[in-house]
Amino acid sequence: MRWIVFDYGEVISKRTAALAELAEILGADPTAFETTYWAHREAYDRGMPDIDYWSAVAGKALDEPTSAQLTKIDTTGWLTVEQSTLDLIADIKAAGHGLALLSNAPSAFGRLVEVEAWSTQFAHLIFSGDLKIAKPDPEMWATLLERLGAQPQDCVFFDDRQVNIDGAAAAGIDAQLWVSAAKAREYLAAVEVL
Hints:
Layout: E1 3-6, H1 19-26, H2 30-39, H3 41-45, H4 50-58, H5 64-77, H6 83-94, E2 98-103, H7 107-113, E3 124-127, H8 128-131, H9 138-148, E4 155-159, H10 162-170, E5 174-177, H11 181-190
Helix pairs in contact: 1-2, 1-5, 2-4, 4-5
């Protein structure tokens, strides 16, 4: 069986539109907020608790209700998906291949994705926040292959970040930089997946 593995953010989903609302709640300048949002994101994706992440972003200790409000807005902001990617995923599934999602994302986001209708196409949903490791760590690729029960050559991996492509390729996985669903479809046809 071939496994087709997708990143989530800006591959399956569109870029979040929630940053301005999050900045407003914290009374922050939107440009400065976006810089801080991303500066602490890797730690959040690696399992930092929600309240610790939002307190770091705010630059001050926040209470649980504020953290929960920010988490809800943030996770919901990432749920807008690209229909062309969902169509590609459905075609891969119909062709009889295995699908897995491998995302650097906080655990709170993982719980939201698990109940999205489109996520049932995937045999495995793997989120870095649950594992306390993240792409491009070598341990992430080992965990992926173990979960799939697969060899590196059995997998095609799509991600929009070159550092993650490089990490997957170093693990022997066929790693392709995401440009669009159309380009991914062309590649999968060329390697006789579709």
